[in-house]
Amino acid sequence: MAQPPSRTLTRECIAAAALRVLEREGLAGLSMRKVAAEVGAQAASLYWHVRNKEEILDLLGDAIIADAEVPPRTGDWREQYLEYGRRYRALLLAKRDAAKVVAGRLSTGPRVLAVLEDQLDRLRSAGFTDADAAMASYLLSAYVQGFVLQEQSPLSAAEAAGAGRGRAARAAGDVFRALPAEDYPHLVALADDLVDPDMDTRFEFGLQRIADGLAALL
Questions:
Q1: Distance between first and last Cα of the chain
Q2: Could you give the 3-state DSSP secondary structure of residue 217?
Q3: CB 170 within 8 A of CB 195
Q4: Where is the HTH tetR-type domain (predicted)?
Q5: At 156, is the pLDDT very low, low, confident or very high (cuts 50, 70, 90)?
Q6: Total number of domains constituting the chain
């Protein structure tokens, strides 16, 4: 039988421990047992505070947002929206496997709720309808999470083996350039653009296009 809950073991303590395990071992290495060991407890004692690993992931989602700084309320809605996206990307890139934790997960922790409330306030104040404001907030999160998931995934087997993204991208470009131009004229012509490893430029392009589309709603 599990021991009664410790007075020093809290959900906040569990979330902090899970963050340390995540940084050290990645999402694949995260388990109830390892989180318990991180706080010097038995795995069974965690069940007084969380029901399963999925609840730990919910706590992690909120803990990851703890370092978020909302953009200043300067400039128009577009600049604030863009800055939200840039800051969210930087936040996810700063923590190992953070995008894998938050992607598709609707956390209702206090930190996430505070950020979401701030976002929606700005969007509604800018003149977006309620439905459009909700969609714009969702779209930003989905874009950033999906982009960072790709950013933190190996480009190819070569990168997974340690070649580095730049080298792996050049190798992919060589493959495109070597294709028969009569069969793949566009792949050959755009080889350099298709495999450009400059992820900042790629991210900004997509972010700006999202803002362009939203501007048409006002």
A1: 59
A2: coil
A3: yes
A4: 8-68
A5: low
A6: 1
Between CA 45 and CA 41 the distance in angstroms is 7
Residue 178 lies in a domain: no
Contact 21, 13 (CB under 8 A): no
Is residue 75 scored above 70 in pLDDT?
yes
Q: How far is CA 28 from the centre of its chain?
A: 16
Q: What CATH number does residue 53 fall under? A: 1.10.10.60
Residue 195 lies in a domain: no
pTM of this prediction? 0.87
Question: Rounded to 5 degrees, what angle do the CA atoms 163, 168, 171 make?
Answer: 125
Please write the tens of the pLDDT for every residue from 159-199: 555 666 777 778 888 888 999 999 999 999 999 888 887 88
Alpha-carbon dihedral sign for residues 137, 141, 144, 150? negative
Quote the domain boundaries for residue 33. Answer: 11-65
Closest CA to 74 of 66, 84, 64: 84
Closest CA to 172 of 157, 186, 161, 185: 157
Whole-angstrom Cα distance, residue 79 to residue 72? Answer: 10
Structure tokens at 159: 């990168």
More confidently predicted of 121 and 153 = 121
Give domain status of residue 22, yes or no.
Answer: yes
Among positive and negative, which fits the CA dihedral 193, 199, 201, 202?
A: positive
Token pair listed for 50: 């969380």
Q: What is the pLDDT of residue 7?
A: 58
Quote the pLDDT of residue 1: 40
Give the distance between the most distant pair of CA atoms in the chain: 72
Query: Could you give phi then psi for residue 60, rounded to 5 degrees?
Result: -60, -40
